[in-house]
Amino acid sequence: VTKAKLDDATLDDVEDALIMSDLGPSAAARIREKLKEKRFGLEISADELKQAVADEIAAILRPVAKPLEITAFPRPQVLLVIGVNGSGKTTTIAKLAHLFVEDDYNVMLAAGDTFRAAAIGQLQTWADRVGVPIVRGPEGGDPASIVFDAVKKGTEIGTDVLIVDTAGRLQNKRELMDELAKIRKVLGRLNPEAPHDVVLVLDATNGQNALSQIDVFKEVAGVTGLVMTKLDGTARGGVLVQAAEKYGLPIHAIGVGEKIDDLRPFDPDLVARVIAGVA
Amino acid sequence: MFDNLSDRLGNVFDKLKGRGALSENDVREAMREVRIALLEADVALPVVRRFIDAVTEKAIGSEVLKSVTPGQQVVKIVNDELVEMLGGTGDDAEPRELNLNAKPPVVIMMVGLQGSGKTTTTAKLGKLLKEKHGKKSMMASLDVNRPAAQEQLKVLGEQVDVATLPIVPGQQPVDIARRAMEAAKLQAADVLLLDTAGRLHVDEALMAEMKAINAVSAPTEVLLVVDSLTGQDAVNVAQSFTGEVPLTGVVLTRMDGDARGGAALSMRYVTGKPVKFAGTGEKLDAIEAFDPSRVAGRILGM
Ligand SMILES: Nc1nc2c(ncn2[C@@H]2O[C@H](COP(=O)(O)OP(=O)(O)OP(=O)(O)O)[C@@H](O)[C@H]2O)c(=O)[nH]1
Ligand SMILES: Nc1nc2c(ncn2[C@@H]2O[C@H](COP(=O)(O)OP(=O)(O)OP(=O)(O)O)[C@@H](O)[C@H]2O)c(=O)[nH]1
Ligand SMILES: [K+]
Ligand SMILES: [Mg+2]
Ligand SMILES: [Mg+2]
ipTM for the complex? Predict the structure, then answer.
């Protein structure tokens, strides 16, 4: 194994690689500085360097790794799933439902996206495949009334987990964000603890705008945790590093495909290696 | 959240006040600010490098320092180069109209990553073709993966009053494409819009499926539909799709968001194809001709 003294040119390469993983220029520069402080001028091989980068990132990600757990009493535990258009909310809901069913929980879905064409049909198909009931209303109906019905019904029949789908919305759309705040409020009408979890679904292919998504959805809907989808491609999800540094929100899971079992627990060491280009 | 480029460069040039001609070093220092601004706007790093090289060359040779506002001069050079690389405006603009010069039905195929906005954009184009070009379209969904994908296009077709190919459960994409060609001919449609399933560029089976669809339908337009929120991955996506099918253009969706939209530059540069449209909302009339000047301003935060 060839080793070389860690110099500025090599550090430049590290910084560039981190930028290409969507860490953003300032977070990438910070990690570069940390490496420089600790190892500048010391002999290091290419593999050791990558591992050192992964270690720095893992240290940032480890504190936020936290699976979703069903602990609510009284039941059901209500999960509200939100995010921008097309990020993977509905698919992630199906995956979560499948996971909870495997763990012997009773799961119910609520079709809170009444806006997008065939969104209800999409969730219905998933519900049928997973084998869980769904509360739905008419296309174009009021999502707030559907989620109210869902909490009522879920409570009546003793559901453990109620997962609420919502329409995609860009965080700069005032009216749609107000609607989301209203959905959140209505969920709490029959059970003041609900929603117990507000999960923001981020698309790994998104760049720095993901931070603005977290910022605004947190403000409007009280995000309690994150799921990042589409990590089965070449996007590396480096924004999670900034998200962890800036917001410290729990990261619950990652999506690695379109199928029902393509959801993985968030493993900070693995994701750190992916971002650092080791894995 | 970020300083705009004018402010950033203002700071750089304030330091240089009272000095003579701009040296190459001064320009390079300014370009460091430009680099960060572009990266924060999600322009992909390899594209940023090319851009900086091009602009540096122009700035060094120019009369920047004779100006009383060198910062503004450099911003102008940067902005002009950006507009140029995004496809240009006015007389110098590359053609961005849909190419409908082929024997009908003219086939337009939509491709892209999962959730980028293909189905919605298909319906938007169906409506646009009808209302702006007086063309009769048929739309067909070849998406057998996503639950209710074909129903989604059917509902959108009803909303914009454009015919959709009847759904035959279980039929595979290439066969659906063949049936769509037949149906479009029979119904004397001017244009056939093919909506395809979302696919990751690393998914070999799905990329092969896309090539097969391309082969049987011989599209006149192959449009890559891309989310304007895309980050550094834009380069990989652009390269892979360009390598697999003969792209003719790009559509950037979700331009109604607040992303700086650097993906526009990455896409334009790596595919070498014009960005033809911008999607500006979920409603089916929310589609506009791509405007390089506006997007350049947005990337620079101005
Ligand atoms: N490759 C990959 N595709 C995914 C993943 N998660 C979701 N998708 C796909 O992304 C597309 C959009 O997913 P949806 O679940 O419909 O996204 P959504 O956020 O509900 O979309 P809207 O309701 O329209 O806002 C679909 O084609 C999914 O199959 C993932 O982890 N990997
Ligand atoms: N705000 C906004 N939303 C858009 C735009 N274009 C599409 N969408 C939304 O983005 C989401 C995904 O759009 P689709 O058209 O289903 O995307 P797709 O590429 O067909 O998705 P797959 O078939 O799953 O790969 C939907 O919620 C659309 O309403 C746009 O320009 N602006
Ligand atoms: K990313
Ligand atoms: Mg959905
Ligand atoms: Mg689609």
Answer: 0.97
